[in-house]
Amino acid sequence: MEGSLSHLSLEGTTVIKKLALNLFCTKFQHSKHMSDFFSTLPKVEKLILKGLIWGAMKWSEFRSPRKFPKGLDRLRTLKFIGIPLHCHFSISLLLCLLMSSPALERLYIEASEREEVSLEQPIQIDDTCILPCLRNIQLVGISGLRCQLQLIKFLLACSSALEEMSIELSMAMGGAQEKIHFVTESLQYCRASPTAKVIIKTKKLSSVRYTFSPIWLE
After folding, report:
1. Nearest CA among 81, 78, 125, 71 for reference residue 104
2. Is residue 119 part of a domain?
3. Which of 113, 139, 169 is the last residue of a domain?
4. DSSP letters of 36-97?
5. Which among 19, 41, 59, 82 could bridge 51 via Cys, Cβ 3.0 to 4.6 Å?
6. Mean pLDDT score of the chain, rounded to an integer?
7. What pTM was estimated for this model as a whole?
């Protein structure tokens, strides 16, 4: 679904398995609580939230609980495209969807190109939760902001079945020294999966690959 709508309701559409939303909507469902919107998708297996949807939800003050009362128990693939990771609202929604998706296996997050340093206080992330089925994570457009590092730390600490995390650095990130600092800090994060492989690369496809063993340079 793409475009601009005055109202969006998915009530009665309980058989949807794949859904992609890239639209601006001034009113979601019949409530401002996200749980009312996402609870209409009990069978969704793949969910993509892109671009305009973030501004629409923030504009409409669409509030997110810590966890949806009715989880997305069949969700296997979750994609966030153009998400402003410097905003409390979008981070809150991202975490809520993760906590509400116990069967999630694949996660793709592409940060907004307009990422900026936030003046808001850092959001509190509970890194004691478990994402038991999450095996593959792709992060794109990472510029090294504190909120992004906080998210990476959370995902590594909570994904007990993680096989690979791929991080593509934004062209907005500074020179070699800043990139080295990013890799050094990332290496210090605890991982719930002892076999997790983390790949850090730039858009030029030069990359640094590392696990708990020494760093490989390619």
Report:
1. 78
2. no
3. 113
4. HHHTT-TT--EEEEETHHHHHHHHTT-B--SS-SS--TT--EEEEEEE-TTSHHHHHHHHHH
5. 82
6. 81
7. 0.85
